[in-house]
């Protein structure tokens, strides 16, 4: 059995972040958070595919990243960011109710116990 790649990947990530921070190339923490949230939304869509779950979660993660950036750049006030997020979440939840949107798949290795 081959060992997992988690530990080496964490070392690479932490070393890269440390290097970027020590050379002053790392952007502000709110910019990094915004990029991570938006990137997670896109990555989740690529990994899990399009289904009822990702129809809601992926756009909300991307919106959360944009909202963090817009709020910290003082482009929008917190009440604007939250109210727009509520409207977006409600719209996505309504769209996800459609029978045309596929359900989340069980994934590999999972079987029904029937």
From TrEMBL:
Keyword Transmembrane: yes
Transmembrane segments: 29-47, 54-72, 78-96
Keywords, alphabetical: Membrane, Transmembrane, Transmembrane helix
Protein name: Uncharacterized protein
Natural source organism: Craterilacuibacter sinensis
Native organism taxonomy: Bacteria, Pseudomonadati, Pseudomonadota, Betaproteobacteria, Neisseriales
């Amino acid at each position: 059995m081959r060992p997992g790649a988690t530990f080496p990947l964490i070392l690479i990530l932490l070393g890269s972040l440390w290097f970027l921070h020590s050379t002053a190339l790392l952007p502000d923490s709110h910019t990094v958070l915004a990029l991570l949230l938006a990137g997670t939304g896109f990555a989740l869509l690529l990994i899990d595919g399009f289904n009822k779950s990702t129809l809601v979660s992926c756009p909300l993660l991307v919106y959360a990243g944009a909202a963090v950036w817009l709020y910290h750049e003082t482009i929008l006030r917190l009440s604007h960011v939250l109210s727009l997020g509520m409207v977006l979440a409600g719209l996505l939840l309504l769209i996800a109710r459609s029978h045309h949107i596929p359900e989340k798949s069980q994934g590999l290795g999972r079987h029904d116990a029937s």
